[in-house]
Amino acid sequence: MTSDAYAEDSPFVPLFGQPARTKILAAFVSERGRDLNVSYVAELVGVARSTVYDHLDDLQVLGVIEHTRDVGGSPMYQLNEGSEIAEELVRLEGVTLNRLFEMSEE
Question: Domains in the chain, please, with CATH?
Fold first, then answer.
């Protein structure tokens, strides 16, 4: 795990705080359109793989992420871009980034 996980700088962190699920969502939003395995998500987020596994089922039930395929026995997931929640997360990321930018110029 890295102490400089890029998800720390996600616009979702100031908005929602720093729980692991927020960072996991930020990783899937930032990497939308790509399948990610649990190890890669854990690396991006800066948490243990077990923590990512703890949240995957709930995020799938909510329809935010989806299992896309297995590669070498490793399940791959991506943001479910057909999900209304996922669409709103993408929109919210942009709106929040714009607001944070405006605040930095004030």
Answer: 6-94 (1.10.10.10)
